[in-house]
Amino acid sequence: MTAPGAAAEVTRTLSEIAALTLKAVRGAGCRWSLAEEAAMAVRVLEAHGLPGVATLDEVLRHPRACPCTGAKEGARCAIAALAALGDGTATLAPQAPVDLPHTQAPMMLIAPLLLAARRLEATFVLTWAGSEVTCALDGLRGDAAPCAAARPRVTRLLARPTGPARGPDTSSRALPQGAWNRLTRLADATLVPETEASRASGAGPCETKED
Amino acid sequence: MIPLRDPDTVMRLSRLGCAHQTRLSFMRVLLRKLRREGWRFDRPAWQIDAKGVGHAVYRARGPRRTYCLVAFGHDLPEDQRTDRVIAEAWDATFTLVDGDPSPDDIARLAANVPLQEAGRVSDRELVLSRANRSARLWDHVVARLARGAQPDPVRLAEVGYLMRTTAVYGSGKFGAADHGALSGRALMDGPFRAEMLTVWLIRAFCLDLVEHMARATGGTDAVTLCPDMRRGLGIGNSTGLGMAPFLVNHPALLNAWISARETALARVRALPAADDGTRRGFAAALDQARTLVAGWRSDHPYQRRKLALLARDLEGLRRHLAHGPLLGPAPWDRLWTWAEAKLSPEGQDMTLSLMLEPHGALVDDLAEEMGADEAAQFQIDGSWDLRRLGACLRRHYGWALAYDYTDPERCAQFWYVSEAKQEPRLGRRAKDAGATLEQPLDIARRAAALAHDLRAASDGTVAAFLTRAPQHRRIVRRVQLCARAPYAEIRDNLIDAGTRPIDMLRAKLSFFGATRFDPRSDRWVRITMFQHAPFPHELHHLPEDAWAYGPVPLGALA
């Protein structure tokens, strides 16, 4: 039951979130290669209690400098940025902060750092516009505020952080209905309408009485 | 030390399409674990009427967890019974629940599970499934049992099941628990364990239901199925293209499955000698396999040819065995070398399965290594230089670089997702609409495109290259994965005019433990699951893992 005035919500699993975001990003015109990056990132963010679905919805609704569409206007595309950051995590020098270009939705960059923290057993700190989070082997520390665009800074730490971390939570979660519906509409753009010909030849099981 | 087989041999699609179940197949792993961990089973609810309508609960209780199958029986009009995924009603619908369902849970599930895709379960549920009765067998069995007679054994053997599942959804679909939620959990910490437990309990429900309906018809005249006939009935499954992309979209998992099987083969081949027990075990399994193949029916020409070769190969293997090849040194390696030289791929893969049979103590531990942490394998290492990437590409994707993709036959098909049911489909590029919405299963073509662009690239890192050419991220990730997971890729062009999706289906289903592959076209197949397996009430009383090739041997029942 939604409280009066509150935004409507829908409950979805991480698998459903990843499946929808993959198709939605592709439906929005991005390459499959980057759609995969976005789907993994949103799954990781949601698993760690961050609004991945809502953030992706914002990313796709706003102009951005996008390698898929060739658009130059706006901040650097968050999806391209998180992919590039993930590629480079292994070579980040310890204790040497790196300033990143002006980037859409810097919260999205938390995902590749969480994946790298597990893969490399390393610790990374990401800061932007008053937010600071630490991504470590055991999960996430700190608070991340939504932000349309900023110049984030990432630092690989030598020391392991202490104190409680937010590890991944695989249970279903409530999501904003509006964002989910918009992503669903984008995902629908990847589907092929059926025709008589495709029904006859493209499908799997067909009717038979001999069962 | 015997090296693992070359992925260029093992991972060809035509070879994967010859795979058979083994000791490492998920159904067998599940039943061994249920038995060894002392799981107990009961049926705390049976509220089914004379028409088969109502609900039942089947419970599996282990040392630390309880799982329950909640089954709903329906009165389905004959004209609504279809295997197609577009169906909206079924003879029975199911869900596997984590723990004991409360009355409120049953009410909630009763409002949703019968709707399947149109309903919604919670993450207390692990699997959602449905099944239809076999029109060929169901009424016959009910009628015979109702009048106190056993059904015709020939008809039972021809069909092999009373109900056929048309979908078994797990891994977070339609609200069910996410795959990650099962990690580290009792019994479920392995691929498709929840799905296999569901199907095994569905089988128990089907047999209980057919006997219940016979009693409702025949009253005191009715009898139950005799135990060996009962055990001879598995669960049918009808599988179409929906399953095919799975192996492509989960390369790390595919590598884990094939690696486990290949490691098992290498371990057995490395044995210096064969003792009397393993020799007898192999011979007994071969005899059972020959019986199984003799009773394996298919009308599809592709499968009939393969079955003929398999029967010929098993007869050749029997004759070869009579010459004592297992008596000398390195017997299993010599047998395998003989099989590679003399047998068809079908016969070789069956020989592999048979070689693992008497070596459970040597290979069964590999079942625990058949999962994969896909998130841990996801990131690209951008620090590689392009020469290293190119060398890795040529080493693991040489097969893909050999095709001429300007030849329309090499790109004749395309994979897409249909709007009607959001299911994967295969289209003909020259004739069908939708190629602009192609799914990225054209791995071979993408590898060739990467090779082309690498030739034009100057030196540098993978990270810099991908910034300029992000379209290659997907294939670069796979190339890097193959460097540490060489069985991650089906080494064939999946958009070629000659690609047969049923080979992809069979590869996956063989790892489930399916038998009696019966293709109905080049893109869907019927199988049988858990045929001859013990039922829950007899799991602890029958020999362990002795059912995969046919009826439990009479001697073992004494």
Can you put this structure into words, describing what you see?
The complex is a heterodimer of chains A (211) and B (558). By secondary structure, chain A is of the alpha+beta class. Chain A contains seven helices and nine strands. Chain A has a five-stranded antiparallel beta sheet with strand order 2-8-4-5-6. In chain A, a hairpin with a 2-residue loop joins strand 5 and strand 6. In chain B, strands 1-2-3-4-5-6-7-11-10 form a nine-stranded mixed beta sheet, sandwiched between helices. A two-stranded antiparallel ribbon of chain B has the order 8-9. Chain B has 558 residues and is an alpha+beta fold. Chain B has 21 helices and eleven strands. At the A-B interface, helix 1, helix 2, helix 4, helix 5 and helix 7 of A face strand 9, helix 18 and helix 19 of B.
Give me a quick take on this structure.
The complex is a heterodimer of chains A (211) and B (558). Chain A is α+β, with helices and mostly antiparallel strands and 211 residues long.
Give me some keywords for this one.
heterodimer; A: alpha+beta; five-stranded antiparallel beta sheet; disordered N terminus; B: 558 residues; alpha+beta; two-stranded antiparallel ribbon; globular
